[in-house]
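Exam revision sheet. Question 4 asks you to relate a sequence to its structure. Input first:
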Amino acid sequence: MFVNAPIHDMVIRIKNAYLARRTVVSLVQYSSYKERFLNLLKRYDYISWFDVIVDEKNPNKKSIRIFLLEVDNPVEDIPSIRFFSTPSRKWYVGSDQLKLVAWWQGIGVISTSKWLMTVHQAKSMGIGWELILEIY
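Answer key, structure tokens:
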């Protein structure tokens, strides 16, 4: 299956798993971009951890298994997501246009020349580029 927006697809799968009270999202196709994105989610406690699984028959084929946090209170524990960039419309911002996400209660993810980082990291470095999404 071809996915036009792989990060969007992965994030929606994570949110749907949270809504269904699942603890694992399996068989997400691997890319280093997704791995860096998941490292950001892990650092800011939106996921518990993740594994990269290598196929035994074809070592070049990898997938990702994502382990989610336990949901105690659905209103507070399930993250809200707001997408900005899409495959057909990129959302570019300068460092002066970056703002706090939900008064420090969330993160914005931006793709820069220095790879993926949060909005507050990019703002402190004075760089901007493609704003992908906000999670809060």
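Marking note for examiners. Residues 6-19 form the longest helix (14 residues).
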